[in-house]
């Protein structure tokens, strides 16, 4: 179990490294969405292994709601950047 979680934690670092190299806001937001998805999958795996459905509910909420808010924030930031470039 610990080996699987360690491998998943290493997989979390890959999008962070890619986002750190690029200045594009969409790349950074997609990297953070990927991290949120991977984290929620990790939470779901832990909840299955520990047989605790309350932890699983939190994982499902992060999976379903977290990415939508992040993409909305990315769209607002992009619109602000477009507006500032036209002025």
From TrEMBL:
Q: Which organism is it from?
A: Thermoleptolyngbya sichuanensis A183
Name by which UniProt lists this protein:
Sodium:proton antiporter
Q: Tell me yes or no: is Transmembrane helix among this UniProt entry's keywords.
A: yes
Q: Where are the transmembrane segments?
A: 31-49, 56-77
Domain of life where this protein originates: Bacteria
Q: What does the UniProt keyword field contain?
A: Membrane, Transmembrane, Transmembrane helix
């Amino acid at each position: 179990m610990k080996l699987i979680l360690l491998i998943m934690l290493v997989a979390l670092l890959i999008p962070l490294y890619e986002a750190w190299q690029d200045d594009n806001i969409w790349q950074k937001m997609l990297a953070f969405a990927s991290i949120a998805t991977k984290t929620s999958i990790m939470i779901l795996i832990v909840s299955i292994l520990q047989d605790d459905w309350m932890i699983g509910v939190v994982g499902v909420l992060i999976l379903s709601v977290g990415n939508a808010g992040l993409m909305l924030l990315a769209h607002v930031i992009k619109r602000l950047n477009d507006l500032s470039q036209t002025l």
